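Ticket reopened. Same input as before:
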Amino acid sequence: MSPISSVGSFVLLLALALSGYSFLAGLVALLRPGSEGLGETSRRAGIAVFGAVALAAALLVTAAFQDDFSIAYILHHSNRELPIAYKFAVLWSGQEGSLLFWSLLLSAYGLVLRLRYRTDPKLFAHASVIIASVQVFFLLLLNFAAHPFAIVEGAIPPDGNGLNPLLQYPEMVIHPPMLYLGYVGFTIPFAFALAALVMRYPGEKWIQITRRWTMVTWGFLTVGIFLGAHWAYNVLGWGGYWGWDPVENASLMPWLTGTAFLHSVMMQEKRGMLKVWNMWLIFATFLLSIFGTFLTRSGVVSSVHAFAQSSIGTWFVVFMALTFAVCVFFFVMNRSHLKSEHKLESLVSRESSFLFNNLLLIVACFTVLWGTLFPILSEWVQGTKVTVGAPFFNRVNIPVALLLLLLTAVGPLLAWRNTSLDSLKRNFLWPAIGAVTVAVLMIAFGVRPWKDASYFYSLMTISLASLVAFTVASEFVRGGRVISSHTGQSLFAGIVQLGRRNTRRYGGYIVHFGVVLIVIGFAGGAFNQDQEKEMGFGDKMKLGPYTLICRSYTQDDNPNYGSESAIMDVEKDGRLIDTLYPERRVYHASNQPATMVANRSSFKEDLYLVYEGQNPDTGRPIIKAHLNPLVMWIWAGVWVMLIGTVLALIPNALPVRVAAAVRVEPVVVGAGD
Amino acid sequence: MRRPILSTLLLSLAIIFFVGAGDDAHFKELGHRMMCVCGCNQILLECNHVGCRDSDRMRGELMTALERGDNDDLTLQGFVQKYGPTVVAAPINKGFNRVAWITPFVALGLGISFVVFVVRSWKNRPAPALADGISPLPTPESNSFRDQARKETEL
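Engineering reply: fixed in the latest deploy. New output:
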């Protein structure tokens, strides 16, 4: 037996014992008053779990670096010629490693929580026990169902099967960690919410404590999802970035409920309302995160993400059922604690807009869940499986997304409690004129919404996105003007001050602006073009304003993979503007192909070339060219969302001292967050 | 004499061009409503596996059906009969599969009705009675958190 396997197995058992102790001792300490000492040992055991799981993860990575193929996981997911960066990625490239990584991140989040316990020892002790229970589940899986240190039976092969070629891409080194940081991170607000319910914790302090956790987690999930989209765009080579694959859907669902929670939680913070709703939103978000892992790992639905599938689904189903039962039990016991402190005063108010915003996000989530599971339902009811793919999701979700976009524009203009129609008209007039102007300009430039549904949706999307952008801009300008008029600073300085004084609100607006850029990028999909052609030396293909000329095609070989590629000159208006190298690789260890897309990207459009293969009769390459407008706006939008999220996490700067003794009325600036 | 000939020629070219473009668009539209059956789980026209014989053959069959003048339903039915119901990328709006299309919109309608109902009932109800242990009047602690929330979200 390999020494790494022996030590790794022992460390995993130790981690299970420690987390089991942390859970049980913590539980006893909570049930028996005066057991502070026992509670402290539970906290320390929870901290030690991090050390044990981190050591296990480090051992698995070390085994990958040492090419220790006596460990089955390393044999199946690595090989001697695998580049160094991807040896790290081995940790999350298979099922057992992914679960270990889940456990590692959870223990790291738990470590931070347990080190910060002084903020509120009792609430943190409850949350710590809940986290320990989740940790126990994952460590049980690792020890008894998906052991990462299991050894190979029989003779040890001289080399491994290698990492899945689709995963051998730089973004794959960071995409799964980001996604997992998002999935796992929702355990923390879930733990605090359940703890607050169990304790009948007074007030909204738990929300204050978890607000930053939730935003950080949401930020990681956002980045993770879009890194996955970027990876799919550049690696899968079908010209798109989102295919509504079940595993993609699995990541989108907790994101949607998490987004709803980030909005509705403001109603609880500011008005003491929607307490039941918020509690269940965060429960649902956590359960959907687990459900996502279940979908990825169980193989219950067909997916292109067939990196790791097995029979561990039953474990997840039991865990989800138990978690749900615990949530329902404490909710039924303590629901009287969650009564609203205020009543709603008007349908035209910020509160109502949050309700509708939540409704649309939940409907979108339900639709995604419904479409993902419908093939199973169909098989159960009709005896035949049907496919629910992109045409279904696009047709059903686009109307919901458009309504959501409209609400994103209107919501920030509404005041808390009640908004007069006059003030709404006043704030809404110029953004609305701007959005209509954009629509008219699009029609003038040749978009004919009456000719095709996709053009109609594209026009609506870009117009509504413009409406959101104009309302966001008007909020900044109005607020900046108030500050500059009282301080004598320039408008720009006033806007900067505004952002610093209220990072959460204006960070949120920047996130909305990022969403605007992203949906404009999505809308560009209506104008995609593509063409496929066998290209000999000097052959030409015309696509949009570009002429593609095949200069040469070649083959290469290195220890990791063999490749075929074409050298394609790109001309525009008769002038050479670029040379692109679409490539197709076949990895030696796994004998699997992978596409290396050649992409010339700009804010206007992407010229995206795929080496489809060779005609076996002529030996000439077949090139598929896509012209995808506005795709870069999506990636730019993600950066903007990230900047907004970071800004919203920064504490507010102190209010600017106003020279004259003039009272600044909040209502003058805007309608409030 | 030359002008009518030229006009006829241009008109013929335009018809050929637009009819051709229509066929191509129709091919793309239908091709995006079907899945490749090679197991890649991709839309037929997006399957890009090297040497995937299924997608090439299916594209050929689709083209033949369009050239034959089959309507969309007939074409899709032909594919369903040959490759099974999973070849269609979204459930056909018939029988039980109709439930797939209706349910999201029913959920949206019910949701909107529910929110409107909730808002109206909240508007009309008296100030809420609170559970034991929660003071109906704001406590200093809750006040401080509300104050912090207000500072964080308003100017």
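The radius of gyration of chain B is 30 Å. The longest helix of chain B spans residues 2-31. Please confirm and we'll close it.
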